Structure formats: C-alpha cells, structure tokens
Amino acid sequence: MSSRRAPRGEYIETETGNKVARKATLLGTQNIMLGGKTVIQPEVLIRGDLIRTIQASTQSGAASNNTAVSIGRYCFLSRGCCLRPPGRLYKGAFTFMPLRMGDHVFVGPGSVVQAASIGSHVHIGTNVVVGEFAIIKDYVRILDGTVVPPNMVIPSFSIVAGQPARLIGEVPEGGHEAFELRGLYKTVGNNPQPAS
Amino acid sequence: MSSKRHSILPPAPSGPKPPVHFSSSITIADSAVLTGTHSIAIHGESVVHPRARLDSLAGRITVGRRCVVHERATLGAVGVSGRVAESGAAVTLADYVTVEVGAAVEAGDTVIGEGTVVGVGAKVGAGAVIGKHCTLTPHTEIAAGEVLPDYTVVYSNGMRRTDKRGMAELKNKGLARQIDVLRRIIPSNPGKFA
C-alpha cells in the first residue's frame, strides 16, 4: 500500500509531549490526566474507568471531578506496569479514590501501583507492589520486588525494600539529582535520542 | 470517515472458544479473555475485570458467587508441572474469592476456599487446596499440591500465621459492596462469550 502518511511509530506523541505507546491499554481515558512529557511504554495498563462513585462533599465545587488517575510531568511508566485507583468503604458504601502522582515519577516494569498519592521524584523499581491507599512522599526510592503494604506512609528521602516494605536507608545528601527523568524522556519515542 | 482506524486483517484466532455457563447477574468485561475446550462456569454476581484470563484447556473452571477476578489475573494456566485436572475440574473458586491483579491460579484440581484473597502477582500451584478466608499477600507462591488450612495468612516470602480477627463476615459484606459499584462502572458483555 502506498501512503503519503508518515509511517506509524510505536508511540503516539501528543502536543503536550506525552509519549503513549500504541500497545498500552488505557481504560477510561477521559478520566486519566497526563501532565505532559510523560512516557507510557507498551503493555502498561491504567484503570481510568474505576472512578470515584461518591463525591466527598457537594459544596466543594459544583462540577464533579471524575479524574481517576492524575499523572504529573516527566513521569515514566515502564513496560507492563499497572496503575489502578484504590478502593475502599467510605460511609458504608464502596468507592474508588483518585490516584495522584507528582512529577518525575519512575514506575519500573511489572509494578502494580494502587497508592492514594505519590509525590514528586519517586523511583519505583521492578515488580514492586504498592498497596491500596499507600502515601509516598517526595524523593523516595523503592527497591525491586518490594511489597508496600496498604495504607503505608513513606516519608520523604527514604529508601524502602522488603516484603512487607521497611525503611532501610535515606537518600544521601545531593542524591536527589538521580531522580531527574528529563534525560530518560528523550531516550524513548518515535525518534529517540541517545542518552547523554 | 470514522475516527477509529480498523485493521483490514481478519481478527487473529485466539484459541478455541470454551462452552460457558454464566449466571444472568454476572459482570464480565469485553476485553476479558476466555479460552480453552472445557466449560467455564461463573456464578451469580461475580465480576471479571478487563484483561483477566480464564483458560480451560486443562479442565473445567468454576467461579463461585460474588467473586472478583481482577485484570491480568489468570485462572487455569498450565503450570510448569504440566499437570492437568484428573477429576476434570481445573480450577474451582468458592464464593467471595478475590483474585487480584496479575495473580495466577494454575490448573489441576486447584481449589480456593470461600472468602480467600489471592494478592497481586501471587501464584497458586497446580493441585493446591486453599482453605476458607485465607489471605495470600502480594507475590506469595503456593507450591503445587499444598494444602492451606482455613484463616491462614501467607506473607513475607512464605511466613504463615492464622487470622484471628474474626473479620470474615465483614469482609464478605465489604466485597458485596465493592461488587455493587463494579457492576455500575464496568461495562458488561456476557453475550460476546456465549
């Protein structure tokens, strides 16, 4: 077939710089917010269809906010990871709650994230499970294979590992530059640049 | 012109289509995968999330009432032992069983008791019999043929303890509430598999 169209790349690149793999599964796309410059690799699954069914209070804005998953800038979702909003009983009824993610969050391959909130500059390793309603603050490193139990709160600048996750150390002084994902962002996409 | 572009190739054959026995009250997502040759039965008010996989190649699969099978979970995959069901029942889930994201329940007379939660990425080997109200935390592996007593919690790479909280009834009620919500937000398409 002859086509004047440019060959279809592996990624869809949006105006805001998001790179979303064609082979990623995004359910309920209208409820997923991407902040821009976010990479979503193939086989990633995001459950945007699990929306909040009970609104917190009617007085906090007339327009109901249905965002199920919100992702900041320069996040990197590796192959095979899964993001799903956490759910729980709230005032006697079950509801899902939104999953919020800050900027520069790296989610390793095969990880499953059901956190309530993840701060900025967080590194989640390979095959990590983040339990429901976990709260991860900024500059946190979660090592490979960790199981973060539900409702755990991980303070800033900590390194956690183990099943269940335990605090095993702190991010050293000046170590926060390793969380920067701008370089990684450039290395994927339809015309990737070599890592500098 | 429609905005969606469809492939001109015929859809790839995804294995044999199993005979199914669905209750009228189940919720099964369109993108769930059901393959195999033996029958798959799903009883009342159970929910099968998108991209869950039920494979009845090795024997019959039975899902009880009010079960939830999450995305990427596999029921009835033939494990490394290659064991298939001797009695014809590959995987049997009792009522109120939750199989979380990416968990695998291998085929071969595997039974999971009422109210049990199989955690994220956990693996239940062929022929294992899990008791009632057990909790398998994420990434636990139950060896083939193992028998787990009721109320066991398996955590932290195979440590065991008994759940003495007496929460079984409450957990079942909570699950029923969850199913109420899931039925509303997951578009169900049982007709696709019939």
Automatic annotation (TrEMBL), chain A:
CDD domains: LbH_Dynactin_5. It is found in: Cytoplasm, Cytoskeleton. Keywords: Cytoplasm, Cytoskeleton. GO terms for cellular component: dynactin complex. Pfam families: DCTN5 (PF21711). It comes from the Eukaryota. Belongs to the dynactin subunits 5/6 family. Dynactin subunit 5 subfamily. This is Dynactin subunit 5. It comes from Corynascus novoguineensis.
Automatic annotation (TrEMBL), chain B:
InterPro entries: DCTN6, Hexapep, Trimer_LpxA-like_sf. One of its GO terms (molecular function) is dynein complex binding. The keyword Cytoplasm applies. Keywords: Cytoplasm, Cytoskeleton. GO terms for cellular component: dynactin complex. The keyword Cytoplasm applies. Gene3D superfamilies: Hexapeptide repeat proteins. Coiled coil: none annotated. It is found in: Cytoplasm, Cytoskeleton. GO terms for biological process: mitotic spindle organization. Part of the dynactin complex that activates the molecular motor dynein for ultra-processive transport along microtubules. Belongs to the dynactin subunits 5/6 family. Dynactin subunit 6 subfamily. PANTHER family: DYNACTIN 6 (PTHR13072), DYNACTIN SUBUNIT 6 (PTHR13072:SF0). This is Dynactin subunit 6. It comes from Corynascus novoguineensis.
